[in-house]
């Protein structure tokens, strides 16, 4: 099953999160696209997700997940103890998403925005759409 993570390419926190995922995804299960890219925009549109969504988006096959559900489903596939974070899925979604939304709404203020693009190594670059 194809797994694609759509992220805010202008957000420092989001870019650092992508690097974090790459380091803990030794099998290379995830592919990545910036939400601002043509590919990212098309994938959002295909899944009827607003292009101004303030969330990481996980596409798994024909399903798409946003907010805390996306983050937890991603953690479930990472190496190490990060898999255990998925147990937080038992917390009611409105509660999880309210915390997620606080971080999402403040991420630019707290972590800043990028004024340049990350240039990944060739072996990592092939994971970007």
Question: Overview of this structure, please?
Answer:
The protein has 129 residues and is an alpha+beta fold. It has one domain. The protein contains five helices and four strands. The protein has helices at 12-23, 38-46, 67-76, 93-111, 122-125, and strands at residues 3-7, 30-34, 57-60, 63-66. Strands 2-1-3-4 form a four-stranded mixed sheet. A hairpin with a 2-residue loop joins β3 and β4 (63-66). It starts with a strand and ends with a helix. The model has no long low-confidence stretch (mean pLDDT 91).
Number of strands: 4
In the predicted model, the low-confidence regions spanning at least 5 consecutive residues are none
Q: Please give the radius of gyration in angstroms.
A: 14 Å
Mean pLDDT: 91
Biggest beta sheet attributes: 4 strands, mixed
User: Which structural class do you get from the secondary structure elements?
Assistant: alpha+beta
Distance between the termini: 16 Å
GO molecular function: protein-disulfide reductase activity
InterPro entries: DCC1-like, DCC_oxidoreductase
Pfam families: DCC1-like
What's the gist of this structure?
The chain has helices spanning 12-23, 38-46, 67-76, 93-111, 122-125, and strands spanning 3-7, 30-34, 57-60, 63-66. With 129 residues, the protein is α+β, with helices and mostly antiparallel strands.
């Amino acid at each position: 099953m194809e797994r694609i993570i759509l992220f805010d390419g202008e957000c420092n926190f989001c870019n650092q999160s992508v690097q974090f995922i790459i380091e803990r995804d030794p099998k290379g299960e995830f592919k990545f696209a910036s939400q601002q890219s043509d590919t990212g925009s098309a994938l959002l549109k295909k899944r009827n997700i607003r292009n101004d969504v303030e969330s990481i988006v996980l596409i798994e096959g024909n399903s798409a997940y946003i907010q805390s559900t996306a983050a937890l489903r991603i953690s479930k596939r990472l190496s190490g103890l990060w898999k255990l974070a998925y147990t937080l899925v038992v917390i009611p979604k409105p509660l999880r998403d309210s915390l997620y939304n606080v971080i999402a709404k403040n991420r630019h203020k707290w972590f800043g925005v990028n004024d340049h693009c990350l240039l990944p190594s060739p072996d990592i670059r092939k994971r970007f759409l």
